[in-house]
Specification:
Blueprint (H helix, E strand, L loop, with lengths): L1 H49 L2 H24 L13 H16 L5 H28 L7 H10 L2 H4 L7 H11 L3
Helix pairs in contact: 2-7, 3-4, 3-5, 4-5
């Protein structure tokens, strides 16, 4: 009888362990599903913001600023000089990509999805304004746009590099001016 009780206790223990493992696996799967759903919801909110009338107006101002700065630098054969990003709204756009980078870095958003939706803009804005970001950092804002820079680096790793198009500021500015018209 003792052997029968031991076998019964052993089977009960194994069954309990298997049930706990199955519950943990189900919990993990549900957590991933919830994180994915949250990520999609957050990404849709970013898309609404990026394509809102107000934000398009900011993007248009920045495209006009980029045109002026490019024209001045080509006229003088000089490097583009930055004074203050916020006076034309460039700071707001860089902040948008900073938030997007932070959300991606913290795995709220999926890197592949963010790359598909925003790499064109982020690559152009980052390469155009990286010297201005460096200036902001020199002036005491050490953490300025660090997650935007992280996202740029991730977008340009080997895995994505072949999918990134060439950087063409004139084409980018023309596109931004045309798609952000009031």
């Amino acid at each position: 009888m003792d052997n029968l009780e031991q076998i019964s206790d052993f089977i009960t223990a194994i069954t309990s362990i298997v049930a706990i493992i199955v519950a943990l696996i189900a919990l993990r799967i549900e957590g991933k599903r919830n994180r994915f759903a949250l990520g999609i919801q957050v990404l849709m909110e970013y898309s609404k913001q990026f394509n809102s009338t107000e934000f398009k107006a900011e993007r248009r101002k920045v495209a006009q600023l980029m045109t002026e700065l490019l024209y001045k630098s080509q006229e003088t054969n000089d490097q583009i000089i930055f004074e203050n990003l916020n006076y034309v709204g460039a700071g707001e756009i860089l902040d948008f990509f900073q938030e997007l980078g932070a959300m991606t870095k913290n795995k709220v958003l999926n890197l592949e999805t963010v790359w598909g939706d925003y790499s064109y803009w982020l690559n152009h804005y980052w390469l155009f304004f990286k010297d201005a970001v460096a200036l902001e950092r020199e002036q005491g804002f050490k953490e300025y746009a660090v997650d935007m820079e992280w996202l740029y680096i991730k977008f340009n790793e080997k895995k994505y590099q072949h999918r990134n198009g060439p950087i063409d500021f004139d084409g980018f500015i023309t596109y931004e001016l045309s798609c952000t018209q009031p």
